[in-house]
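seq/struct pair 1
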Amino acid sequence: MARRPKPKSFGADRPVPTTPARAPRQQVIPDAVANRMVRRIAIATGTPTLLGMGVFVASYLLVSRGLLDVPPGLTLVGSGAFFLLGLLGLSYGVLSASWEDGPGSLLGFEQIGVNIGRVRASVRAMRQGTSGSGSGSSQG
């Protein structure tokens, strides 16, 4: 009796790629710090964004009721300024939060310089860790 060849499964003839084992992530943002950042981002971004939308509503009410003739350019510049302030609030929310166990101060101005230094040190460490792995590059 003739033997039937085993059916090949899809991709069975290819070697299984192996990835080098990566070290587990050592730094995870603690929940207390993440919650602190989210609260600050929500306030620092949400408030200017609501004010930016409020400029449109206020301008519409003033013009439609004939109380004041507001130029459309002024409405656009006013709302755009608030939206830009909201965008800056995103960075402020992250950088002003205390990254330590303690909650820090109410506004967190003293944390901004400390946290910017930490970000710079982290970026520097990442660059040094990846710069030596390039193949064929000469360091000079």
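seq/struct pair 2
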Amino acid sequence: MNNIQPLVAVFMISYNQQDFVIEALDSVLNQNTKFDFRIFLSDDASTDDTEKVIDSYMENHPKSI
């Protein structure tokens, strides 16, 4: 029996969510887990500043890489 930890993938889709996308990302990243997980965030060509908000978050968040 191998002891490989499970990997959970969290898929998030965003469209014009500049005011809420950080809260959504933080809610996932703040979960207390004993397994690895990856977040896949897709922005569906938002017309507001969602992309800028996400880019800034990724640049300044230690868990985002």
